[in-house]
């Protein structure tokens, strides 16, 4: 279950994480890649990242159903995401990333839990390199994406749709599904904001 208190990281904190000098052979380097990938794919939960299959990447976007809510998510793959995927290819596997390596249903849950613990430990080490005010965990990308999106003026309805929430407010329940181009624009705007770009469109 998600901790009750998860603090989003601000733009400066994400920039510091992105700019840390890490050994490319270290697990911390890989953990940063996975963290950034989750952040840039509209706050993808880590469990969804772990279970992604190569067949779910199509025409520049991911198409998957969230483990928690079974709601459809179709985040755009940004250039930064493509670079992360190139660095972390899962060879000879149906999985998109080399997080899960077994096809045995009895072993896969245990393997995920072990990897998640290792991932969170690595994020804790990265947080200490950034500063005492930053706390990193597998839950943080989701909160951070939503926080930054709200900060730059993306509407709550677009944010809710991007996060693939099962339930929305009463007003949102009567609104039609947002077309993909608005969700794609939200992805681009969040990354542009993190990268110091000022080309932000209100959506």
SSE topology sketch:
Elements: H1 11-19, H2 27-40, H3 46-51, E1 57-58, E2 61-62, E3 64-65, E4 72-73, H4 79-87, H5 105-130, H6 140-151, H7 156-162, H8 170-173, H9 180-194
Antiparallel strand pairs: 1-2, 3-4
Helix pairs in contact: 2-5, 2-6
Please describe what this structure looks like.
With 203 residues, this protein is mainly alpha-helical. Helix content is 50%, strand content 4%. It has 9 helices and 4 strands; from the N terminus they run αααββββαααααα. The protein has helices at residues 11-19, 27-40, 46-51, 79-87, 105-130, 140-151, 156-162, 170-173, 180-194, and strands spanning 57-58, 61-62, 64-65, 72-73. The strands form 2 sheets. The protein has a two-stranded antiparallel sheet with strand order 1-2. A two-stranded antiparallel ribbon has the order 3-4. Strand 3 and strand 4 form a beta hairpin. Helix 2 (27-40) packs across helix 5 and helix 2 (27-40) packs across helix 6 (140-151). It is globular, with a radius of gyration of 17 Å. It starts with 10 loop residues before the first helix and ends in a 9-residue tail after the last helix. Mean pLDDT is 86; it is low at 168-178 and 197-203.
